Task: structure prediction
Amino acid sequence: MLRVRRRTRVRERTDVTAEGWKAPRAAIAFFCTVLQVCFGTVYAWSFFQTILVRQAGWTFTQGSLAFCIAIFSLGTAAAWAGQLLPKVGPRRLALIGSTLFAGGYIIASFALRIDSILLFYAGYGLIGGIGIGLGYVTPVTTAAKWFPDRKGLVTGIVVMGFGIGALLLSKGLAPLLVLQTEGDLPQVFLWLGIVFACILIPSSFVIDDPPAAQVAPWKQPAQVGPYLKSSQFAIIWIVFFFNIAAGISVISFQSELLQEVWGLADPSVEPAVLAEYGATLIAASSVCNGLGRILWAWLSDRIGRVAVFRILLASQMVVFGVLMTESNPWIFSALVCYVLLCFGGGFATMPSFILEVYGPKNMSKVYGAILTAWAAAGITGPLYVGYLKDTYPDRAVMYCFLIGILMLGAGYLFSYLLDDDRVRLGRPTVKQTLERYGIPVPDRP
Result:
């Protein structure tokens, strides 16, 4: 009996430090996921974009620019958050990000009320995007530190929340608020800001780092700068960028693209019904986005991170090729869901990849820097699709997926400059390379 009590005490101490009470790591993982679900609602933008184009007279380019600014601000702020996280701690950073995110919706509400598209960009895009960026890095990095023995699976679960956030908004909160406010978008955005503030701010108070004893030891250089300037980091960034750019171009317009395909297949369908079909696709694809983050993270623990990225890129090239000419809306929807499955897979695999290569002490800084690929892709993907929709409405779908194939192909080629063993060990010597292929190396006298 005495032994059992001693073991229990030791187990409880893993959640307590000299700084005070720490929540059990299961609770940490849960609230990290809650934060990600709320932040991930940004991927339901196409739900609002279609309404703004039809009711407010926005062009597709104007609508996509709001999403571009949000994603660019997200990725840029995430890079800054990676540098800031070790200094201010996860709790404070999560609180700041949550406040900015909710505040961005409230500012966007006021912008719609006074019909100011520039203020909308500043609120929803800039301020809200910065909030997501500050908040996004915190749950992922913190959860990985709490679960060094399950880092691939746990980071996959946490970022899965970001993937399914669009489901919460497109099939839950947004339609309900649109119905309750009788389509008054300023009120919809105002209530979204209030709801997110009520969920995110209390959840942020639970987020904290584990006791120092629970963080796996890792010997590494004092500065991260040399890593960020290396060719290895550049190649990882490029591969990540192309996978994101292809997927985010679909995310930003999936509802509108499906409505176009369905309208051509059955012209008798009413616009309101088409909008419902589009919202359903957003919800279904967000589930795939979330599931992909668990599936590919689990697979990457078994076959390697680089191998997973090659599968993601190669399989999507085939899918994009079919999407170029696919006229069946059901098949089109299924293929879009697969693209989102792969899109989520890239985000699930990358945290563990960075953790393995650079270690837990450098993870927040390097992972934040790698998320600048997200910022760049957020500008590239939605903008070219919006331009094609406005300029070549009849051929926009084909052109969009053709450009996607080219981006995926470039990422696939760059992935062959990476190797799981080489990445973990650093640049190999001639001796290491020869020994790897079974070539005997004579010892020097």
Notes: Strands lie at 16-17, 20-21.
